[in-house]
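Reviewer comment 2.1 asked that we show a complete input and output for one of the modelled complexes. We chose the arginine case, as it is the one discussed in the main text.
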Amino acid sequence: MAEAQKTSLWGGRFTGGPADALARLSVSVQFDWRLAPYDLAASRAHARVLAAAGLLDPEELGKMLAALDDLEAACASGEFRPTVEDEDVHTALERGLIERLGTLGGKLRAGRSRNDQVATDLRLYLRDHARGLAVALLELADALTEQAAATIDTPAPGMTHVQHAQPVTFGHWLLAHVHPLLRDLERLKDWDARAAISPLGSGALAGSSLPLDPAAVAKELGFAAPAANSMDAVADRDFVAEFLFFTALVGVHLSRLGEEVVLWTSQEFGWVELDDAFATGSSIMPQKKNADIAELARGKSGRLIGGLVAVLTMLKGLPLTYDRDMQEDKEPAFDAIDTLQLLLPALAGMISTMTVRTDRLAAAAPVGYSLATEVADWLVRRNVPFREAHEITGKLVALCSSRGCELDEVTDDDLKTVSEHLDPTVRQVLSVDSALAARTTPGSTGPGPVAEQLAMVQHRLDTWRLWAIEQVVPR
Ligand code: ARG
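Response of the prediction step:
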């Protein structure tokens, strides 16, 4: 392990290098290397602050910044790579700096620790990638909204307990999958405001005896403010846990959408047909067309929830301040981002290219006595207490069910036999179109409210588009 000592940031008081087993357990550079651009941005800000404090002269600052730029280019091109001897991204980049600057490279670490560095890097990384996730979420929300616009007056059998309940429009149903995504975007923006705190300047845990300027660093890195407590700054991973709650809940939303697509595309429902490009076949059954994207959405929610549970569990018993356990915060966060960045475009493509079988949906809308509530409401409008109206309608359903006929297929005499309150004019409410048209209150499934809702959703999506392209981390 002689090599390990050469690049290590902490060899001074040790007589020998780390055991191989320790080095292998401890190394994180294979996953934290993706923090490199953020670590370099933080290093630039730190170098400027050291210079302002008189700890680097102007010439040294110039050389330092040039070397950091050169190192960034070398990282981007792949010319500079971490090696197995580099414990983590910070170690690797310090090696790169020293390769370029010699002893001057060793000055940058003054007043800074990997504890405040890694917390800073991860905040920068997550805030930056949050925008990318917002873009991907918007793509899916757009696909759903466009399909909703196309099916704004397509009747469908709205369900509770997967049983036909009341007619709705399919557009209303699809928009019901957009609202959770809008809330996810809102949640992300709220999270972002809390994540916009800069830990840099907190050092290992106690701040620094050097005249640093945490506010200047915070500003340069696009943070709203420096941390108010150096111990909290290096111990806090709420921003990771909260981010993972966001990704877990997105996972749950995508899973519920996925489950519906699985149902809709089944032989039994037959409401939706997937485009060939977004469906898969079977290796043995030539006729099969499977909704694998929808199933993967359902399945991947497991790992997204798992990431949140892993980080909360890792954090729960940790004494302040930094503990090495916290290195376990990164892989779940990175995996959640990678997972959603794979899943969301596939779902967006699947939704935007699917064909909605409007004929089958409309035919299914009144099936299963889904207009029974219309009869009860008709009675209520005639002053029958709802409790009684419910009872009368139940009897009518039972009669129809025993005869195998629909609600509007019984005779005038039958109506009278079921209840003195029923008469043939009740048939006016026994159509899907009249049931939908009767729903005029805001938020309901009637054509008017759904049109208003659609316009509102489109407007809100446009607002989010502006947020998603905001640049948070200055380059
Ligand atoms: N790789 C470490 C992590 O991700 C960096 C911080 C190391 N700090 C320390 N005191 N060992 O948490």
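DSSP finds 19 helices and six strands in the chain. We note this here for comparison with the apo prediction described in Section 3.2.
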